[in-house]
Amino acid sequence: MTVLTPERAASTQAPAGPGIPVRERRGRAGLTLAAPFAILLTLTVLVPIGYALYLSLFTDRLSGLGFSGPHQAFVALGNYLDVLTDSAFHASLGNVALFVLVHIPIMLGLALVLALLIDSAVVRLRRLWSLAVFLPYAVPTVITGLIWAYLYSPNSGLTALLPFDPLGKTGILPSIVNIATWQWVGYNMIIFYTALQAVPRDVLEAARADGAGGFRTAWSIKVPMIRPTMFVALVFTVIGSLQLFTEPLVLRGFTGSVTSTWSPSLYVYEAAFIANDYGRAAAASVLLAVVSALLSALVMRLSARRSR
After folding, report:
1. Per-residue burial over 191-213, b = 16 or more CB atoms within 10 Å of its CB, e = otherwise
2. Confidence at 284, pLDDT banded by 50, 70, 90
3. What are 11-38's pLDDT values in tens digits?
4. 211 φ, ψ (degrees, to nearest 5)
5. Alpha carbon distance 213, 221 (integer Å)
6. Which helix or strand (DSSP H or E) is residue 178 part of?
7. Cβ atoms within 10 Å, residue 295
8. What is the largest CA-CA distance in the chain?
9. pTM of the full structure
10. How much is the pLDDT for 66?
11. Number of other CB atoms surrounding residue 259 within 10 Å
């Protein structure tokens, strides 16, 4: 038997190429594989963000009598100050904050309960129930808003069953919460149900052997084991709630309770495409992105601390 020394073993390896080390070739291969993603990320994320930051530092102003048209003027942080001191922007943030406080507990709680019921085989025909609950998510948001706007109208008969006017000033927030919950509860239920399927069966069998009932098993074993999934769903729900746009935009055509700046996204839309103030719209978008990032970081920090 021939024993190869490290020197001889290295010499018997296949050559990497004419003058190109193996490590360098692997580095080039990695860059080649990552290049499509890097290009796509740059074009679809980094460039728009950079352009938004650029626009937020300028505003259109008229020179002289205005016959020469508007020109861009550098205002530094002036647009940000205008947005931060605008009462309409404050009101939009308040509306979304109330929406988040009401919508997230109801929607995620209902999705978790439905996922636990389907996973525990309490509900028969679980595939049919899963499809029925998930189906509203497949409906486009605009169509969903139009359907519920018709149901909220006085001619539908639904208003007679409610103690408030769903299109009035006091009822518009619950109406939007109901639309968003109806559409997104099935999506999050599928996420929670998929996470529940990964819970080890032997752990559940051990709990049943110890005398734990269905509620005790769900609350003390299943829910803690899918807590990371719940926090991820919470982060995405918070981000999506801050971007609330389609539901109030559709209902605005049916009621005067929804103003053109009811939510931050509507505020940006009004500034950009109605007032043609792209600098203020870009500044509001950047501020909204910062708020979303801070809230997401806070939720993830709480999630990591809870896990420890």
Report:
1. bbbebbeebeeeebeebeeeebe
2. very high
3. 444 444 555 677 777 777 778 888 888 9
4. 95, 10
5. 11
6. helix 172-197
7. 16
8. 97
9. 0.82
10. 55
11. 16
Residue indicated by tokens 């929670």: 192
How many whole angstroms separate alpha carbon 210 and alpha carbon 203?
Answer: 11
Residue 62 tokens, joined: 């008229």
- Count how many Cα atoms sit within 13 Å of the Cα of residue 68 in the half-sphere of its side chain: 8
The reported pLDDT for the residue numbered 14 is: 46
CA Rg value for the chain = 27
The backbone region for 21, taken as left when phi is positive above 0, alpha when psi lies in -120 to 50, beta otherwise, is beta
Placement of tokens 């929804």 in the chain: 258
Structure tokens at 226: 């899918």
Q: CB–CB of 221/199 below 8 Å?
A: yes
Show the tokens assigned to 61. 């102003």
- Backbone dihedral angles phi then psi of residue 60, each to the nearest 5 degrees: -90, 130
CB 261 within 8 A of CB 273: no
Q: List pLDDT tens digits, range 37-71.
A: 899 999 998 999 999 999 999 888 766 555 566 76
Over pLDDT 90: what percentage of the chain? Answer: 40
Q: Do residues 51 and 68 lie in contact, with contact meaning Cβ atoms separated by under 8 Å? A: no
Contact predicate 265/243, CB 8 Å: yes
Owner of token pair 């508007």: 70
Phi then psi dihedrals of residue 125, to 5 deg: 55, 55
